[in-house]
């Protein structure tokens, strides 16, 4: 996908603020500072549309970014930040859960994990919950540039085994600094939103075509 336009739309705090244009949505989930904003900026070839924060846990809303007229990236609040109160974490949990289970335009969740470290308990819990709820999920292992290339395979194996991913399912390795995995990730996202495929005909049009066939 060639990105011609990308813009921040809204920091939503509830369903009443979600966009109503029915464009497909790709959500980004992960621990604070795992690189969600950097990944968005890399995908759209912009330096600072999605603002990175030096203050983990700061994002407390669903941040919507509109890409062309094709889809939204939805940046979810980071999880697992210890300085956030238990009450606040519970509120975030319910907020995010409601979105992930009830948002009809949602097509895929990109769960970001840090390739340098084994997935945390929070990472494991999120992945298990998404799988249990049949929410489509793609694990993206970020910050590959931070470790030697010779150790990539070992670290990917640790991520896959720690999360309990099915045999044959691999995390997608990514580096915002190197652009590693960018093209492959766009290919997966285009497939998830059926990019470039013709709009399905309405039932009324299909019925008309059956009842009034064209003369041969």
Write the layout of secondary structure elements.
Layout (H helix, E strand, L loop, with lengths): L5 E7 L12 E6 L5 H8 L18 E6 L3 E5 L10 H17 L3 E9 L6 H12 L4 E6 L9 H12 L8 E2 L8 H11 L10 H9 L5
Parallel strand pairs: 2-4, 2-5, 5-6, 6-7
Antiparallel strand pairs: 1-3, 3-4
Biggest β-sheet, characterized? 7 strands, mixed
Helical content (DSSP H or I, runs of 4+): 25-40%
**How do the strands line up in the largest sheet?**
1-3-4-2-5-6-7
- Distance between the first and last residues' Cα: 39 Å
The average pLDDT value, as a whole number, equals 87
- Low-pLDDT parts are 205-216
Describe the structure.
With 216 residues, this protein is an alpha/beta fold. It is 32% helix and 19% strand. The chain has helices at 36-43, 86-102, 121-132, 152-163, 182-192, 203-211, and strands at residues 6-12, 25-30, 62-67, 71-75, 106-114, 137-142, 172-173. Strands 1-3-4-2-5-6-7 form a 7-stranded mixed β-sheet, sandwiched between helices. Helix 3 (121-132) links the parallel strand 5 and strand 6. The model is unreliable at 205-216 (pLDDT under 50).
Distinctive features:
single chain; 216 residues; alpha/beta; 7-stranded mixed sheet; 7 strands; globular; disordered C terminus; GTP-binding; nucleotide-binding; cell cycle
């Amino acid at each position: 996908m060639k990105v011609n336009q990308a813009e921040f739309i809204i920091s939503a705090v509830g369903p009443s603020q979600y966009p109503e244009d029915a464009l497909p949505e790709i959500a980004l989930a992960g621990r604070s500072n795992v690189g969600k904003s950097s990944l968005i900026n890399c995908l759209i070839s912009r330096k600072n549309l999605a603002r990175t924060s030096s203050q983990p846990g700061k994002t407390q809303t669903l941040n919507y970014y509109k890409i062309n007229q094709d889809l939204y990236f939805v940046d979810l609040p980071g999880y697992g930040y210890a300085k956030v109160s238990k009450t606040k974490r519970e509120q975030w949990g319910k907020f995010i859960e409601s979105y992930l289970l009830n948002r009809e335009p949602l097509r895929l969740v990109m769960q970001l994990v840090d390739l340098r470290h084994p997935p945390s308990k929070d990472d494991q819990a999120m992945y298990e919950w998404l799988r249990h709820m049949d929410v489509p999920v793609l694990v993206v292992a970020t910050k590959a540039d931070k470790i030697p290339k010779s150790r990539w395979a070992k670290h990917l194996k640790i991520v896959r085994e720690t999360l309990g991913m099915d045999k044959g399912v691999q995390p997608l390795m990514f580096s915002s600094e190197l652009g590693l995995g960018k093209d492959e990730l766009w290919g997966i996202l285009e497939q998830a939103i059926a990019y470039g495929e013709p709009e399905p005909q309405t039932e009324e049009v299909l019925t008309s075509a059956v009842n009034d066939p064209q003369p041969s």
